[in-house]
Amino acid sequence: MNCHYENGYAPFALTNFEEIKRHVKEMAVVVENGSMPPWKANSTYRDFAANRSLNTKEKKVLLQWIKEGANKGKLEKEELVQAASIRDTPDIVMKMPKAYRLKASSKNTYICYKIPFELDSNFAINGLKFLPGNKAALHHATYQIFEVSEEVDVYAGPDYFTYKEDSVNRVEDLRDFNYFKMIGKNGEMPREVYHGGWLPGTDKIKFPAGVGFDLPKRGVLLIRSLHYSPSAVDAEDQSALGLYTSSKPIERKVGFAAFQPRNPSPGFTWQIPADTIYKAHLNVKFNNDVSLLHINPHMHLIGKTFKAYAVTKSNDTIPLVDIPEWDFNWQDFYRFKSIIKVPAGSVLHAEASYDNTNANPNNPNYPAKAMAFETGMDESNEMMRLVLLYLPYAEGDENILLD
Fold first, then answer.
1. Element (H, E) at 251
2. Is the pLDDT of residue 166 over 60?
3. Hey, CA dihedral for 174, 180, 184, 188, is it positive or negative?
4. Domain assignment present for 147
5. Is residue 3 domain-resident?
């Protein structure tokens, strides 16, 4: 994960022995209380690739080493080997042409930003890494890569627009495509080639050989939602998306699906009452065999627990993800250790709970008050999303390792 290295998310680097030695006291405290390394998924329910957690034995060894003075062992090299996700560099970087200037504000800010691109050729892409330009300001981002018709000037039109109101339905294709002049002369609509997102805690996304998407020579990276948190000072952000090319052609395109619960009383504002532990559910039937690659549960500040699983037609349960103690500041696109097959006819179930009481230290309201649910995107509201990266199933998928 992109944390403890130069310019990473963490407040200090841990890439050599001297840096580690300076911070062993802090390490002992956070390892002992379980706040570090951050890993919120219940590994006994479903383990994932790149699991950052430490088991009981590993914690004991580390804490004992610190207690005994954190002495240096016998290393052939002075420099510690860094993780591949830290060392590597994307092959293609699509960066915001101009920095967005964020004014100091007590409110959340949402913008939609257009990044045009023209390349020498098409490329096979089997990995991505969102590169936030201002980690302190940026809360999350969702993005899509589009191919446009030949007569569209990808550089025409404005760079961005600011959403005037927080709205869960803020993305409107026709409005946005017209605004950024992405529609052809004869009404040819942009063609989506990839849909993804970034949240705090999300690292590089890598797919197996032959899996990913084809990047066209010309097109637009449209960051549909750049969400900036309230800030006491003016700031700038110039985020980017890094792409990893593959020498092997893409044989299977990755799909993106996002699910949300339905309002039980359509036409009325959905709310989580004050002083309650509230529960929400979603159920989705799969009509075809599906191969799951990544899973991302999402809630806001008063989220408490999140569990997802699938039940097959033969009543077998496929565990997918369990977050027993939700932490808004540590979310991830969890990558399965191997592809998970979900047979046709299975029903995907997700269960989320919310603590809207005064006892919840993460509650943005004191005293607790009714909170809108599924009607806004900022942290003063609540929501429930389950995002999947998937493939249509092919024979033998369940034997493909993703770790």
1. none
2. no
3. negative
4. yes
5. no
Is 12 among the domain residues?
no
CA torsion sign, 203 to 209 to 213 to 218? positive
Q: What's the average model confidence in pLDDT over 197-218?
A: 90
pLDDT for position 280: 97
* Preceding peptide of 37 cis, ω within 30°: yes
Q: Is the dihedral of CA 173, 175, 179, 182 positive or negative?
A: positive
For residue 210, the 8-state DSSP code is: T
**Mean per-residue pLDDT of the chain:** 90
d(CA 25, CA 20): 10
pLDDT tens, position by position, 14-70: 777 888 888 888 888 888 887 788 889 999 999 999 888 788 888 888 888 888 888
Domain that holds residue 370: 257-399
Residue type, 390: Y
Give residue 277's identity as a one-letter amino acid code.
I
Do residues 232 and 99 both lie within one domain?
Answer: yes
32 and 105 belong to one structural domain: no
CB 6 within 8 A of CB 288: no
What sections of 129-281 are H helices per DSSP? 173-179
Are both 289 and 386 inside the same structural domain?
yes
Question: Do 145 and 274 have their domain in common?
Answer: no
- Residues 258-298: tens digit of each pLDDT: 999 999 888 888 999 999 999 999 999 999 999 999 999 99
| Nearest alpha carbon to residue 293 among 150, 203, 397, 386 | 397
Strands 100-102 and 123-131: unpaired
Look at the block and give the residue holding tokens 């949240």.
Answer: 199
Running DSSP on this structure, what letter comes out for residue 397? Answer: G
Verify that 183 and 215 share a domain, yes or no. Answer: yes
Decide if 277 contacts 353 (C-beta within 8 A).
Answer: yes
Mark whether 95 and 240 lie in a shared domain.
Answer: yes
How does pLDDT run across 245-261, given as a tens digit for each residue?
A: 999 999 999 999 999 99
Does this model's pTM top 0.90? no
Q: How confident is the model at residue 77 (pLDDT cuts 50, 70, 90)?
A: low
Question: Which residues is 206 bridged to in the sheet?
Answer: 127
What confidence tier does 167 reach under pLDDT thresholds 50, 70, 90? very low
CA 130 to CA 260: how far, in whole Å? 24
9 within some domain = no
Angle at 253 between CA 251 and CA 256, to 5 degrees: 165
